[in-house]
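Notes on consecutive records. When two proteins share a document, each keeps its own sequence and its own token line. Never mix them. Below: protein one.
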Amino acid sequence: MAGLTSSTIGRKYAMALSAIFLLIFLVMHLSVNLLSVFGEDAYNNASQFMGYNPLIQFVMQPILMFAVVFHFVMGFVLEIKNQKARPIKYESNNPSNNSTWMSRNMIISGAVILAFIFLHLYDFWLHEMNYKYVDGLPIEETRFWGDLHAKFADIWRVVLYVISFVLLGLHLGHGFQSSFQSIGARHPKYTPVIMAFGKWYSILIPVGFIFIAIFHFVTQS
């Protein structure tokens, strides 16, 4: 790992691999959460399996945590090194003509998304850790849907989630194709397909999460 992150190219490659892993995770996470829209039992069953399966809890979850931290740390490191490599901005430079606003400000959207992740962990992961390992409460198969539903009773939380997922969509819009480009997946035949798929991915994933938050808000009894 040290050799992979010792050069700028290596860091970009490692960051791209962590990004692809997180892209896959987002699909899985959305798939499970969408079950809460279609029925309490389906979501409760899936959540119980995810929450008490040893392989997921003690192998996959630490890997996910590492991937999140690694991705953001690499992002900040690359941004700092890019800034140091270009200490002087030429007056003639007009970046808006050569790149999108998001591609120039991935660090900003990334920082906001990181703050949202902390909120999300506080809302759900920390609650689970307290329930299972601090309070030591017994397995209650029907609690998961109710916990999720209750979190979206407050409009301010829904608004924060919506804003965060909009920024996530913008972040994904550039990050998806950039990740594949960084690992060398560039070809006249396949690159347009990757770009098109990335565009739809960056729209559908955030829209799916936003739909879930709004659904649980408007269906509060």
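Protein two starts on the next line and is unrelated to protein one.
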Amino acid sequence: MSFWEYLNTRHQQLLTDALQHLSAVLQCMVVATVLGVVIGVVSYRSGWGGSLAVSSTSTILTIPSLAAIGLLIPLVGLGVAPTVITLTLYGLLPIVRNSIVGLRGVDPSLVDAATGIGMSRLARLCRVELPLAWPPILTGIRVSTQMLMGIAAIAAYASGPGLGNEIFRGIASLGSANAINQVLAGTLGIVVLALLFDAAYVLLGRLTIPRGIRA
């Protein structure tokens, strides 16, 4: 069976796996973004606090993703739980780091001006600092998403959702007629999803970043 014939006969299952993969990454990115920005906001004013936040989240990436999922299985079981926890933790570093860099890069004179017109600390953060720090934060989100698209495939090891199941089935049946087709379909599906995500982030940046800041 050719690759195109395989896609034609398995398109419904592949579409289901792709939607599950997309959903898992999207939901974990939302959680990682909220946590990452909060950590950045809490730590960016302190030199040691920022260093601790970055070093702590970077340490997570030194743990092989397969090992991390394997260690979580006895604690939370198989399926969605180890997938969500692993993806969320692995997505933190670029967002935390870029949040700290972006917030530290805000012009102090703009913050002083906001203080001078009576803005509270929370108002300055929400209306001045975070909007100006948004471009690097968005870049961190894009990097995290690309990382998680690949890592999410490993979740199939713990019976997680997504296109990784197609890849693992192909690897487990190497030598059979459709083994290569399965691996190729899962891999190409992840690449296509990653490109779609990145295009969506480019559009989001154009809609949310003022032209003057982009320039």
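For the record: The two ends are 51 Å apart (CA to CA).
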